[in-house]
Design goal:
By secondary structure, this protein is mainly alpha-helical. The chain has eight helices and no strands. Keywords: Membrane, Transmembrane, Transmembrane helix.
């Protein structure tokens, strides 16, 4: 119960952060310009050394890649009769990354940065779809790692690598010039809010499912 309250509190904080950023972006965009400019200049100062890496890592947040990885993981979960996990995973990737994020972009209609783009993008900027998608897709896997791997040390290593991977995808969007830092933070906040608020619900459903399965 204690962990549930913590998760719900932090999840709520993430959504409050998203709502606050969205309000500023929509009505007082000039307020956040100094922050966006400072972070963008710092990250893009790494050019061209990191260009190859960020062009590579950003592909793991592309819609097609996300769909392929999602379907592969979904197949594994269904094959292993992990139905509760499959439902939670699908709800996040389809509902939040696939439907909610594109729709919410239409509310803010923020134009992308006017600096040079190293990849082609045509939709609105806030919140970053790559950031939301990677947080939901790979973030869910962070929670599900213990299901597949029993060794605690291996669990922590894989979870850390997935966390760094998510962060790298977000940074790549700034480095490549297609997103403001506030877009990335907004996307991460949406995805993280979803994960932290729904994980306790998933845990409860998983416990009930396992209990019923044992009875049968």
């Amino acid at each position: 119960m204690k962990n549930k309250l913590y998760l719900q509190f932090y999840g709520s904080c993430a959504l409050v952060l998203f709502a606050s950023l969205g309000y500023i972006v929509k009505f007082y965009a000039s307020w956040i310009e100094p922050f966006d400019t400072f972070i963008t200049n710092g990250i893009r100062s790494l050019q061209p050394t990191w260009t190859t890496f960020f062009l590579w890592v950003t592909k793991f947040g592309n819609p097609l890649t996300v769909i392929i990885i999602f379907l592969a993981i979904l197949f594994v979960l269904l094959y292993g009769k992990r139905y509760v996990e499959a439902i939670w995973y699908s709800a996040g990737v389809i509902g939040i990354a696939g439907i909610f994020n594109p729709l919410i972009k239409l509310l803010f209609m923020r134009e992308r940065p006017t600096i040079e783009h190293l990849v082609s993008e045509h939709s609105y900027s806030f919140p970053s779809g790559h950031s939301t998608g990677s947080m939901v897709l790979y973030g869910t896997l962070i929670f599900l790692v213990p299901i597949f791997i029993q060794n605690k040390t291996c669990q922590r290593i894989i979870q850390l690598l997935l966390s760094v991977f998510i962060l790298s995808i977000g940074i790549s969007r700034i480095y490549l010039g297609v997103h403001f830092p506030s877009d990335v933070i907004g996307g991460f906040s949406v995805g993280l809010g979803w994960l932290l608020l729904t994980y306790p619900i998933y845990e409860e459903k998983r416990f009930i499912w396992r209990f019923k399965s044992k009875q049968n």
